[in-house]
Write a structure and sequence with these properties.
- Helix content is 27%, strand content 19%.
- With 134 residues, the chain is an alpha/beta fold.
- The longest helix has 14 residues.
């Protein structure tokens, strides 16, 4: 009589990480990104903090203080502010609709490694996703 091997084969399952994000004032409110908003902690600089019209470095200072990843349209202004110890910046193409941006940001966050949480510029466009290390 044959015996079965009852040892369980362990599959490597990646633990879900709930990220904290800060949307720049050029982006729509968090309610326009329903998937992102349901899985992650999303705040908007103008709606939640009531700070519209402030400079990019002050917005990024808020993100640093609260350890939030920034989501922006204008990557050239934020590229100079990113350091190895500061939160990463996700730059969206203006050609993306809110629905496309919602899905692509969630896709990036699912595949983000722990070393990419800090000091990276993540560019998202219709053609693909590019992660630039410092």
């Amino acid at each position: 009589m044959r015996t079965r091997n009852t040892a369980k084969v362990s599959k490597r399952v990646r633990k879900f990480i709930k990220y904290k994000l800060l949307l720049d004032e050029g982006l729509s409110s968090p309610k326009n990104y329903p998937i992102l908003n349901s899985y992650h902690n999303v705040k908007h600089i103008a709606h939640d903090y009531r700070r519209s019209g402030i400079s990019d470095d002050r917005v990024y200072t808020v993100a640093i203080h609260e350890s939030r990843l920034m989501v922006v349209f204008n990557q050239k202004d934020f590229r100079l502010l990113i350091k190895e110890t500061t939160p990463s910046v996700i730059s969206l193409s203006p050609n993306l609709t809110n629905k496309e941006a919602d899905l692509k940001i969630c896709k990036v966050l699912r595949s983000l490694s722990s070393s990419q949480n800090r000091g990276c510029l993540i560019s998202i466009s219709k053609s693909g996703i590019v992660i630039k290390l410092p």
